[in-house]
Write a structure and sequence with these properties.
The chain has about 200 residues and is α/β, with parallel strands linked by helices. Helix content is about 30%, strand content about 10%. The protein contains six helices and four strands. Helix 4 (about 140-145) links the parallel strand 2 (about 115-120) and strand 3 (about 150-155).
Length: about 200
């Protein structure tokens, strides 16, 4: 209805109090935004259910990743899966796996202390049995025999992992208090996946 030119201005995100060491064991390379500090308090201190909805490039991943890494470090040596990160697509899980691997490898407190694995399918040609800066643990038998602190998966595979007999060892170290975090990342993509099956209720 109208022609350009158009000007798009990206406004800066509101700054926090400047405390990059909100979690001393997992310091950030930059001062967190205000919404990140609020998320840190809710997720990593008060352990409250939290929905993070903010713009692209605002550090949504750090909102949950930093508190989870700190919690796993504080509970190092405790067996069992402490956090599950669910993704709508394997490509997103793989991308975030690399990001998480780098965060762990570059932190001397976390390296060789906190473990993370990715379980998104039954078949993988180049499964890895250990962690490195470029990847997480992806070998299925390794994950079953030595469950990681953090598990990345998708919603379909998580369903299998909870009911298949061959995967029961994955949860052998968990008690009713071990699993502390359940993260559903990229929530908007789940709406597109489940859209054909959506049921709407209307008030009459």
């Amino acid at each position: 209805m109208a022609k350009g030119p158009y000007l798009s201005i990206k406004l800066p995100f509101e700054k926090g109090q400047g405390n990059a060491d909100f979690f001393p064991a997992v310091p950030m390379a930059f001062s967190p935004h205000k919404h990140q500090e609020i998320a840190f308090q809710r997720i990593g201190v008060d352990f409250k259910s939290t929905l993070v909805a903010t713009g692209t490039g605002s550090g949504k991943t750090e909102c949950f990743q930093v508190p989870i890494l700190d919690y796993c470090y504080q509970h190092r040596g405790q067996k069992g899966i402490k956090a599950i990160l669910i993704y709508p697509m394997n490509a997103l899980a793989a991308d975030q796996a690399q990001r998480l691997a780098k965060a762990i490898a570059d932190n001397p407190n976390l390296k060789n202390t906190v473990t993370a694995g990715i379980y998104v399918g039954d078949k993988e040609q180049h499964a890895t049995t250990n962690m490195a800066r470029e990847h997480l643990i992806s070998d299925k038998e390794t994950l079953r025999n030595n469950p990681p602190d953090i598990l990345l998966t998708n919603y379909k595979m998580l369903d299998f992992l909870m009911i298949r007999a061959k995967d029961h060892t994955l949860w052998a170290g968990n008690t009713e208090t071990t699993l502390k975090f359940l993260v559903v990342d990229e929530l908007g993509d789940f709406r597109r996946i489940f859209y054909p099956f959506r049921i709407e209720f209307h008030r009459r």
